[in-house]
Amino acid sequence: MFLRRELLLLAVMVVIVLASVAHHSYFWTSRNISFILADSMVITFLALGETFVLLSRGVDLSIAPIMGLSAVIVGFRAQDHGMTLLPAVLLGAVVGLVLGLGNAVLVAVLRLPPIIATLGTLSVYGGLQFVVTGGDQVDHVPTQYTDLGSETIVWGIPTILLIGVAAVIVTALVLRHTRFGRAVYATGNDLEAAYRSGIRTNQVIFACYVICGLFAGLAGVVYLMRTGSAVATTGTDNNSNLNAIAAALIGGTALTGGRGSAIGAIAGSVFLSLTLTAMVFAGIPAIWQPAGVGAAILIAVLADGKARRQNNTFRLGRLRLRRSS
């Protein structure tokens, strides 16, 4: 099923590329393709984190301000105190972990519904961004940040893409080849069955929200690499929540939990970046971009529902065949 979804997504992307090239030949240049791939990396990190909570049958609506807080906190340290890149990555990870821990406590310990808990922290963390910035903004980070965000290697492949691919590989290994990863899928598939089989489901859900915060914090550092700036509304001003959830769903992660992959997260992120860039080349006003993302979410959910119904019908048919024989 995943392979079929990924092939379909690839086919749609090819159609978008061909249509865009027919409209404007510059679309298929190494510089523009490099921009599309690099621009998708922020959403890739957010979508990887969102994939964990969606797999556990949850949702995190606070990843945008977590990313924004990480970007401004790290950005001010880099701008005012010359913080180098490695400590910046560690600081961004710590910021994300702490804020993700807040969500984890609300959902897994206090048992608040995920959408209510993270909707609340969306406002709280967003307000903290204004407190941290105090009316200032980050606009002069060291060049080592922006160089890494804009450099390319052979064939115009952006360096930052390698960072994103490394994160995807690590996530895929964790989800598919560790006991924790299998527990995440089991918890999302059937919480009660997972609990009865000995899985500490609350701990799994707790860890998923912490991991989601970690990825959002790292996304803030990646955002600094790409833009070299951060303000009080970073993350919340460009629909990062919506884009990350859309990328995960488009890549095959189910809202009902228990189904999804890290490969799907990066595939959905590249698809979104490609689609939004194609909309710009087509002369579609930026005000319509959120509508395009929303339409993509609806299509992904409808396609997932149809595939699930077909799969259930197929299983029921096989069960009846076995009973009759």
UniProtKB/TrEMBL annotation:
The keyword Membrane applies. It is a multi-pass membrane protein. Keywords: Cell inner membrane, Cell membrane, Membrane, Transmembrane, Transmembrane helix, Transport. The chain crosses the membrane at residues 7-27, 33-54, 61-79, 85-108, 115-132, 152-175, 204-225, 240-256, 263-281, 287-305. The complex is composed of two ATP-binding proteins (LsrA), two transmembrane proteins (LsrC and LsrD) and a solute-binding protein (LsrB). Part of the ABC transporter complex LsrABCD involved in autoinducer 2 (AI-2) import. Probably responsible for the translocation of the substrate across the membrane. This is Autoinducer 2 import system permease protein LsrC. It comes from Rugosimonospora acidiphila.
